[in-house]
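User: I'm putting together notes for a lab meeting next week and I want to include a structural view of one of the chains we've been expressing. I don't have a solved structure, so I'd like a prediction I can at least talk through. The sequence is below, exactly as it appears in our construct file.
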Amino acid sequence: MIHRCITLFAQLPLGTPNPDDNEPLDFSDPFNIVVFIILPIVAVILYMVWRKNRRK
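Assistant: Thanks for the context. Below is the predicted structure for the 56-residue chain, given as structure tokens.
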């Protein structure tokens, strides 16, 4: 009985994104390179500069 309840609650509703439907990143697309590599690096650098200026 408990196993059936857990199974019912563990199902995803129809129309919601499923983690199994994701595709791997395609780094031949320039948009993916900018969003997933360049922007995080720039954000970390800007944060470090901001903290350094804030301490002065």
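A couple of points you could mention at the meeting. The longest helix spans residues 30-55. The radius of gyration is 21 Å.

User: Perfect, that's what I needed.
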